[in-house]
Amino acid sequence: MLDLAAGRGRHALLLAGRGHRVTAVDRDASGLPAHPNIEPLQADLEDGSPWPLGTRRFGAAIVTNYLHRPLMPALLGAIEPGGVLLYETFMESNERFGKPSRPEFLLKDGELLDLVRGRFSVIAYEARMISEPKMAMVQRIAARRLR
Ligand SMILES: C[S@@+](CC[C@H](N)C(=O)[O-])C[C@H]1O[C@@H](n2cnc3c(N)ncnc32)[C@H](O)[C@@H]1O
User: Fold this and answer.
1) What is the pTM assigned to this prediction?
2) Which atom of ligand 1 is nearest to the CA of 62?
3) pLDDT of the chain, 147 residues: tens digit per residue
4) How many CA atoms lie within 13 A of 12 on its CB side?
5) Distance (Å) from CA 82 to ligand 1 centroid
6) CA dihedral over 40, 68, 136, 98, signed as positive or negative
7) Paired sense of beta strands 2-4 and 22-26, if any
């Protein structure tokens, strides 16, 4: 499994604890938990370097609270057929609650659906206001790669 922009590895740790091998990528890998099932990978995903995972494929990829649109082709391509994408991050209108507020960090209406259309089967999708851990506007999707 791949946890992209994994931060302090909260999802990587959850998955690793359930027996999954997780590759956790972040530009600051120092916060990633030490766990035998977690492969930490320090990489800047926005500095123009090549995609740090080469041709590796994963049975699942999770991305939360992170958006860098130029990565999308590589991210989707890193999920093997039958594999699952879990993506949740902030969307437009979040600016009324604070940060992130810059358009490059906010999904547009329906953007996650548009991202996977034709290549993934959508399992679940939401675009909504949340109140925990703080008020925010988010989109979230679970989708399975078709081919
Ligand atoms: C808001 S945190 C989300 C962390 C984690 N996904 C979560 O939800 O707990 C965003 C993460 O993106 C990482 N990040 C930001 N810019 C990055 C870059 N250029 N390359 C790699 N990681 C980056 C940060 O280091 C941070 O850990």
Assistant:
1) 0.98
2) 6
3) 999 999 999 999 999 999 999 999 999 999 999 999 999 999 999 999 999 999 999 999 999 999 999 999 999 999 999 999 999 999 999 999 999 999 999 999 999 999 999 999 999 999 999 999 999 999 999 999 997
4) 27
5) 26
6) positive
7) parallel
The reply to whether omega before 133 is within 30° of 0 (cis) is yes
What is the atom index within ligand 1 of the atom nearest the CA of 47? 19
As given in the structure block, the two tokens for residue 14 are 């959850």
Measured in angstroms, how far is the CA atom of residue 105 from the centroid of ligand 1?
Answer: 12
| Structure token pair of residue 121 | 């089967």
Ramachandran bin of 118, using left for φ above 0, alpha for ψ from -120 to 50, beta for the remaining angles: left
Look at ligand 1, atom 9, and give the residue with the nearest C-alpha. 7
The Cβ-side half-sphere exposure at 82, using a 13 Å CA radius, reads: 1
Protein residue with least CA distance to atom 26, ligand 1: 7
In the three-class reduction of DSSP (H, G, I as helix; E, B as strand; rest coil), residue 113 is classed as helix
